What we know:
The chain has 13 helices and 13 strands. It is α/β, with parallel strands linked by helices. The protein has two domains: 116 residues, Aspartate Aminotransferase, domain 1 (Alpha-Beta Complex); 209 residues, 3-Layer(aba) Sandwich (Aspartate Aminotransferase, domain 2), CATH 3.40.640.10. Strands 2-8-7-6-5-3-4 form a seven-stranded mixed beta sheet, sandwiched between helices. A four-stranded antiparallel beta sheet has the order 9-10-13-12, with helices on one face. The chain has a two-stranded parallel ribbon with strand order 1-11. Strand 5, helix 7 and strand 6 form a beta-alpha-beta unit. Helix 4 runs parallel beside helix 5. The longest helix is centred in the C-terminal third of the chain and has 24 residues. The protein is globular.
Amino acid sequence: MNSKTPLKKETNQNHGGQLRKAAQRYDIPLEKWLDLSTGINPNGYPVKTVPPEVWQRLPEEHDGLEEAAAKYYQSDNFVAVPGSQWIIQKLPQLIQSNKSSLSVGVFEPSYFEHSKAWQEAGHRLVVIPHDASIEFIDQLLPELDALILITPNNPTGRHFHREVLLNWLSILQANKGHLVVDEAFADTDPNHSLVPLFSEGNTEQETLTLKGLVVLRSLGKFFGLAGVRLGFVFADAALLNRVTKELGPWAIANPSRWVAKQALSDQRWHHEQRLGLGFDRLTLMTLLDKYGLEANGSCSLFVWVKTAKSNIVFEHLAKAGILVRQFEPNSRDQIGSLRFGLPANKEEFARLEKALAQFE
């Protein structure tokens, strides 16, 4: 990797999960598709029937959601928000600075809504290659006012260790900067999360060292509950107060709060899923490698493959009713890539293998 000045970010991307559009384009009924495009747990939390009174009442605090979240995340310094996408869009306005335009580091490829939000707010984006060395990023940080990252990264699966992130935070703090860490895929290995650092058990000195750190969590990926639109933001008290004011009353639907409380409290389900997802990832990597699609990165919810045949493979699978996430070549990677989510069961694995075996 060279040390040339990073380039301005381009944000013309599509999201995974657009199944209705694919069904129309390929003229395959919606129910006939196998959707591997989202990175969402295909065996998400089994939601029970929501009691009628939950639908009939306005949301209220102290219903057990905050207590369940505090136990699950090992911290109670958070604000619940209507999905991490909401806070991603709001952060550029909520983070205060004496500068009108900030220099913001973003990784490429990564979840582009982060880049889009900061760019639309008028800030200057600095692209960092997804495989940039730690040393390169260390040298770049003094020029940045904020660094935005996902760990594990989406779609490359790259993981940044806690010690590295805290060192980056200290460098940014010297310039009154911010480190925004999106842990959307971190639930499968929570021991590496930064969230417990926000615990009230920290001393005042330890808490002060976290100023400028923002961590995002979500129920969409590991729990497979993307439809509840619920996430959590962990940050210093001043930023959390601004988030709360921006939310207003009844920001999270009552059924979403009820479902999330059940999911966050089910420790047995958490344990079983972490074991099962790890096994399924290895099974998927082995299957893809068998047909010439070697993994370039992964986490427990997806496998990322760079291939010069990305367009051909994508089209072949789509015509078989299998949707995967496609990434076009960018300023750093000269070839495209595909992200494969996990099949839900043996039958879906078999269907994927059958389609791959027919690829010429």
